[in-house]
Design brief:
This protein has about 130 residues and is of the alpha/beta class. The chain has three helices and seven strands, in the order βαββαβαβββ. The longest helix has 14 residues.
Length: about 130
């Protein structure tokens, strides 16, 4: 299994974001420099049914990409939460993945989930789980 390194501080920030709004899907980006994840960028979810789906606010997303460019950073990952389900991609997640080359981080807001944060790549329509190290 391929692995990725995500600093513990970033994992905790993503988990805290998900738990801050446990009834809706939260979403955001992870910026990196030279392949090393540095910071989380929360983005508002503007989906019509945020309890079941996420759609990133386009203006916030464009602003985040602009700041990344200005800082010499790249998009490392996209994250979102599943309020009631496990940290596993849904069919919708796979079908709507707009950036297949980046890591997709999914968070279960359910505190009883033994693996509340998991990472994936979507390759040629298939889900490939990545081992997470911090």
């Amino acid at each position: 299994m391929q692995s990725i390194r995500l600093p513990r501080e970033l994992c905790e920030q993503i988990l805290a974001h998900a738990r801050s709004a446990p009834d809706v899907e939260v979403c955001g980006l992870v910026a990196a420099s030279n392949g090393i994840p540095l910071r989380c960028v929360p983005v508002s979810n503007i989906a019509r049914q945020p309890q079941r789906y996420f759609t990133m606010d386009p203006k916030q997303q464009i602003d985040a990409f602009r700041v990344m460019r200005e800082r010499g950073e790249q998009l490392f990952a996209i994250y979102h939460s599943h309020p009631r389900g496990p940290a596993h991609p849904s069919d919708t997640d796979l079908q709507e993945a707009g950036y297949p080359d980046v890591v997709h981080i999914i968070v279960s807001a359910d505190s009883s989930d033994p693996a509340p944060l998991r990472c994936y790549r979507f390759i040629a329509g298939k889900i490939v789980e990545l081992e997470l190290t911090s």
